[in-house]
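Dear U.,

For the methods section draft, I wanted the exact inputs and outputs in one place so we can describe them consistently. I've listed the two proteins in the order they'll appear in the manuscript figures. Please don't edit the token lines directly; just add comments below if something needs changing.

First protein:
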Amino acid sequence: MFESIPVEVGLVHEGERVRKQDMQVELGGPSLPEKFEIVRVRPGDEITDGVIEIIGPDIPDMPEGKATPLGILVEIAGEKVEPDLEGVVERRIHEYCNYIEGFMHLNQRYDIWIRLSKKSYKKGLNSLTHIGKVMHTLFKSELPIIEKVQITFITDPLEIKPLYAEAMKTYEARDARARGLSDDDVDTFYGCALCQSFAPTHVCVITPQRYANCGAISWFDGRAAAGIDPKGPIYAIAKGECVDKEKGEYTGVNESAKQRSMGEVNRVYLYSAFGYPHTSCGCFEGIAFYIPEVDGFGIVMRSFRDVTVNGLAFSTMADSTAGGRQVDGFHGISIEYMRSKRFLDADGGYCRVVWMPQETKDRLKEFIPADVFPAIATELDATSITDLKTFLTEHNHPVVNRWSAQENADETDLSAGPASPVQVFSGGDIPITTAGFRIILKNAKITADKVIIQPIRPHGKTGGESRDAKKP
């Protein structure tokens, strides 16, 4: 099928990483503001099947080891192809590109990040035409309803600007369509396994009010994908019985999660970052991260290049969030989920959000309660926890009321539920070596009623009074 491609193409290469020192070129990525991939349905007479066009420099003309802008426009046609399928077909770009040896594709839509390895480049993978041929073949073989596929790669910085703006309008129009539907209105949710090559235990659950973490698949997209390819990577989940309406726990979701994660994930809360939070792969658009000093959440999007108010960058927190784990207080999210009325609903929603980048705040203005909006700090207001506490107090953020309530309690809770010990560490597998044995704590969560921090003095003495590390 791929005799003309100079490298191997197959499932075996899914999940491969191309590190910076091993890459020939980088396409898109976090250092470039404008990049995209989009699928558009066209009338059959407007496109030519098999045509692959490159507007701008091809791979040999790109600067080695540096980022180049990239837009990918895939135009499709077919008697049974409808515009509702655009988002579904679009997400397959990620999957098909990762079949190519030495060609790493991360994220989606306006966040794409691609690297080509030096090894594959030396083997002859030296043109985007090869990538287009693989995509063309797989689109037509795996989705037979597609009769024509025409692909355009745009690498010219000037040519990409108007197309990027047009793509952003298209994404917004798709996203807006699902906002009028509630999770209570449907009996079926959808799951997506497209990222399991990178995170084998990740189970993405897509509902009308909880968009996929990547921001690329809505409930309508899930329904369309499962309809045309029932055995494909996007599949139906019977909602089942509602176990906890506030947290968003359903028997059908739990059963599906257990099966798809090979028993690693048994319960999922769709609307909470604590207890059994929805897992994250690595393609999430942003992270909701718990800030214990103020008992609130910060939000950081992938595009934010500075450190956040807790002193950590997106990339650092992404390591704690990704991998298909359930880690309390680190929650992969999409922009569209942040527009949902069920966004972190069990944890207080926007009444618990205390910090986010200014660009994100402006983008979500109409979805954040008007009385809370001015009380949420940005990087322009607070760059440290001390600054944040001052800002929240001065602006009477709703979370300040929680501080007063907690001061009068013997124990405090990370979430809005019953009191519980302070969680001081949450992780995946924690190895312990002792007496010749290696003990591994699977999906460990360590809690403590109190944490005492004492300075170590010479000869084993401790000095000064101990300080109890509690939540505010």
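Second protein (the one for the lower panel):
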Amino acid sequence: MFIRALTLCLLSISTLSAADWPQHLGPQRTGHSAETDLLSTWPADGLKSAWKVSGGVGMSGIAVKELLAVTLIQKAGKQFAIGLDTTTGKTKWETAIATEYTNAMGNGPRAFPALAAGKAFVFSGQGILASVALDSGKLNWKHDTIKEHRGKVADYGMACSPLVVGNSVIITTGHENGVAIAAYAVDGGELQWQTNFSDSIGYSCPAYLKVCGENQLVVFTGTHLRGLSTLGESLWAYEYETPYDCNIVTPQLIDGDIFISSGEDHGAVRLKVTKSGNDYSIAEVWASQGRTSIMRNEWQTSILSNGFLYGFDNIGGAGPITNLHCIDAKTGQPAWKMPRFGKGNAIAADGKLFISMMDGNVVIAKLKQDEYQELGRQKVTRGTRQAPTLSNGLLLLRDDESIYAIDVSGK
């Protein structure tokens, strides 16, 4: 067991450059990029476009490894994984992985690709997991996870972004009795293990976190936060039911504790998980729940920086009013609020927040805990839910028509 655990840890360390953004929420799944020397003042003539190319419908983000950008789009009745040259935007390959997916809350694929071991792991709107070669776009293998586990598609589509840990690709998918956490082999796609719960599926992405000094899989289902071993053994659970099963954000670590938040007027909580012998216990460090909560992340994972959480607080049940909040992660107390900021999604780099908005604006603001300080904003896309991706000074974004590269290098 020790040797296997050590191997998993070593295999999960990829040879990444600061310019890589290989998975949902970036290199460490925290929303942070290590890139520096990005623009510090707003250009007098506005942000410059490096390139813009046609794309397709969908809500999948853009993953990058070694100057190759990968995302999922829907067009001509199919869902495709596509690979683009990040310097030019030129399409290098395009691979069909599933038929089209339609949903009243938006058509097309939802999940962010994961790039590892020379492969792109992608998850379609109806739950097809596929592996595609990064160099050629060749389809290595695919599984209809819903059919194989005899489950059903989540009400608003399958949104789990695959997590690669060692030789395992881990997803949450539908099972006949609720939700399945499943691991597939990176190379051959064989099912390695599955753990079933009666929970609803939810829309969150698994995290690989150090909890109680152990590397664990932390999964936010539609009704629970759960800890599992890397072999799929259930370790602990914390009930967290949200209207419409809309638990969407990715769990984040705060000094060894776990932070989760949900919209639909639910709220946020910081949890401490402790272990005594083989037993785990869970305690709330602080909680802010209900209509007066200070952080109700709808589908955007908050960014932790220097002990403060920066995130979108949505008022009401998927309502139109969204504030931008900064809160003290230690106490849960507010630091500042930008009321009616609007719906968006953010990443962090070089002491700044890079925000893509549903109204199409790109906003850049300083990461400051004492006040909100905006550098500027500019209309770029037709509107998007995806957080931007940062690679080699380029901010990559997409909407239902196009894929964009915006220069934020500061050069």
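Candidate sentences for the figure legend, describing the second protein: Residues 227 and 236 are 5 Å apart (CA to CA). DSSP finds two helices and 33 strands in the chain.

Thanks,
Y.
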